[in-house]
């Protein structure tokens, strides 16, 4: 087996492990939510505002962390979507995620003066790519679930792309991705023999 095949296989293995961990966390959080609601005698409707707030905060914090992926927000988002409006959950999560990406943008914007110099190999090529494909590139990177998005924020900031041209396509890519995750995760949880809340 060639090295390229091993790398491709490992990427799929890592993606599979990531998906299993997210779904496992979602099931665990579903049971925790069910237990807490029964223990404190809370209704699903009475807990909605808190659930949306938890989705917002965890997504914001997870997306504000640069380079270090913190996938717990996906499990929280899926768990919330299983009980409350998946469209609203995805809207809240994508808005919070977009706001969280501002940290990567400003690290690139300010970091250029501190860390990145024009003599860095490939710097001009990356900045040129961002200037040519800026908003479309950000949208496509934001839409896909595998590659870390922080690189796009760093490049957008380093190339001095206006903040609104970064945030709009970032949100436009995150919303359908999170919406799909909410519906697929909810469908998966419904397939499991779990007692309803």
Summarize the helices and strands and which ones pair or pack.
Elements: H1 3-39, H2 48-64, H3 72-83, H4 86-100, H5 102-114, H6 123-143, H7 150-158, H8 163-191
Can you characterise this structure?
- It contains eight helices and no strands.
- With 197 residues, it is mainly alpha-helical.
- The longest helix is centred in the first third of the chain and has 37 residues, at 3-39.
- The radius of gyration is 19 Å and the shape is globular.
Roughly what percent helix?
over 70%
The pLDDT mean sits at 78
Total E-strand runs: 0
- The Cα radius of gyration reads 19 Å
Number of domains: 1
Order of helices and strands: HHHHHHHH
Biggest pleated-sheet summary? none
Condensed summary:
With 197 residues, this protein is mainly α.
What brief labels describe this structure?
single chain, 197 residues, mainly alpha, 8 helices, 0% strand, globular
């Amino acid at each position: 087996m060639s090295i390229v095949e091993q790398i491709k296989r490992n990427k799929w293995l890592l993606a599979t492990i990531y998906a299993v961990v997210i779904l496992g966390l979602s099931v665990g959080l579903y049971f925790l939510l069910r237990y807490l609601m029964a223990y404190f005698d809370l209704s699903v409707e009475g807990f909605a505002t808190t659930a949306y707030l938890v989705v917002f905060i965890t997504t914001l914090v997870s997306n504000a962390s640069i380079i270090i992926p913190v996938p717990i927000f996906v499990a929280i988002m899926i768990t919330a979507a299983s009980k409350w409006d998946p469209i609203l959950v995805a809207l809240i999560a994508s808005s919070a995620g977009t706001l969280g990406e501002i940290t990567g943008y400003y690290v690139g914007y300010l970091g250029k003066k501190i860390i990145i110099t024009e003599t860095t190999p490939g710097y001009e090529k990356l900045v040129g790519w961002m200037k040519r494909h800026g908003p479309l590139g950000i949208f496509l990177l934001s839409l896909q679930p595998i590659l870390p998005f922080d690189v796009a924020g760093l490049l957008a900031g380093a190339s001095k792309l206006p903040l609104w041209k970064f945030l709009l396509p970032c949100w436009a890519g995150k919303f359908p991705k999170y919406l799909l995750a909410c519906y697929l995760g909810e469908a998966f949880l419904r397939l499991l023999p779990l007692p309803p809340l």
